[in-house]
Amino acid sequence: MIHLHITSWVLVLLLFVVALMAGNAKTKKIAHMTARMLYFVVIASGIWTLTSLAKVSGEYFGKAILGIVVIAGIEMVLVRTQKGRPTGMAWAVFIVSLVLTIALGLRLPLGMNFF
Ligand code: HEM
């Protein structure tokens, strides 16, 4: 499940970039809709990984909540950009939560272990 988790959040990040950078409005829309479907895969594979653990520590709950905040950050950036509203706060939420989520994910024992 951890591989599905990693694959799905990497795809979400790529689609986020496409939804922001694509010149064509239709491409942007399709990228955004596909990203929204993949949020479910990210969350489901994350929860699945959680339920496969013998012991869930506070760090795991922190990781799960941060992961959901990353998804909220992505939605805030995309929707605010689309509506022409200020995006500074949305970018801050996205970047801070993404860095913390990846750092904590890599610190926790499954998959790759860097810290
Ligand atoms: C876009 C959002 C997310 C990102 C960028 C992300 C990123 C990561 C990363 C980098 C890892 C470590 C993989 C490795 O060690 O090779 C990981 C593991 C994990 N993630 Fe996520 N994640 C996200 C969302 C979520 C959500 C929503 C949940 C739970 C509902 C979740 C639960 C987990 C769990 C339980 C692990 C295993 C931790 C371990 O022991 O290594 N993640 N995630």
Observed structural traits:
binds protoporphyrin IX containing FE; 115 residues; mainly alpha
Structural class: mainly alpha
In percent, how much strand structure appears in the residues?
under 5%
Give the biggest sheet.
Answer: none
Low-pLDDT stretches are: none
Number of strands: 0
What is the mean predicted local confidence, pLDDT? 94
Q: Termini, distance in Å?
A: 21 Å
Q: Which percent bin holds the helix content?
A: over 70%
Shape estimate: globular
Q: Report the radius of gyration as a whole number of Å.
A: 15 Å
Order of helices and strands: HHHH
Task: Give the cofactors and ligands.
Answer: protoporphyrin IX containing FE
Number of helical regions: 4
Task: Summarize the model shown.
With 115 residues, the protein is mainly α. The chain is 81% helix and 0% strand.
What does the model show?
This protein is mostly helical and 115 residues long. The chain contains four helices and no strands. Helix 2 runs antiparallel to helix 3 and helix 3 runs antiparallel to helix 4. The longest helix has 27 residues. It binds protoporphyrin IX containing FE. The site of protoporphyrin IX containing FE has 27 residues, from helix 1, helix 2, helix 3 and helix 4.
Secondary-structure map:
Layout: H1 2-21, H2 25-51, H3 58-83, H4 88-107
Helix pairs in contact: 1-2, 2-3, 3-4
Bound molecules: protoporphyrin IX containing FE (HEM).
Protoporphyrin IX containing FE binds next to helix 1, helix 2, helix 3 and helix 4.
